[in-house]
Amino acid sequence: MALSPDADMAIVKVSDIPMRNTEFLQSSLDTLFRRFGYILDIELHNTTHGDLFTGKATVVLDRSKPHDSGITDWSPLCRKLPWVTGTRNLLCSYEGMADFCSYCHEPGHARNACPAKTKRVECWNCSEVGHVAAKCPRPAIDHTHKKSRFATPSPPQDVTAVNRSPPA
């Protein structure tokens, strides 16, 4: 089947796919991606020798105007897709996708401003959750009474060089 020159192609790289048999994975990915465009190809990625599934796949979609009756427009592509069993999310990447956080995989913020990440951070200064010691609202704890693990270097001593001439 030849594609028209104005076809709207999308190559979607999918990861975090569970280990299942090939037929189940093919049919599940077909069901999952059917709402995003005409599926031209689903390629499951195996290891170099082809004996182990890597949990990744590539789905090639034609997102041109739908000509099926009942479909008015394709659903927009997204970063996270719920797997058919509902137990996990698949992670998708494609050209033109919005920036997303590499920690929680949600769009709209970067990793350093991730609200999910700050929920798990514990301050070393006050032991509260939600901030780091550098941004702690409490004054830093005074550690001057503690002895250093490393010996303080002694000041350098004046050493005078003695010039000895070789015996004659």
TrEMBL record:
Gene Ontology MF terms: nucleic acid binding; zinc ion binding
Domain CCHC-type: 123-138
SMART domains named among the record's database cross-references: ZnF_C2HC
PROSITE patterns, per the entry: ZF_CCHC
Keyword Lipid metabolism recorded: no
UniProt key word Amino-acid biosynthesis: no
Residue ranges of the TM segments: none
Xref: Pfam families: zf-CCHC
Ranges where the record places region Disordered: 146-168
Protein keywords: Metal-binding, Zinc, Zinc-finger
Name this polypeptide is given: CCHC-type domain-containing protein
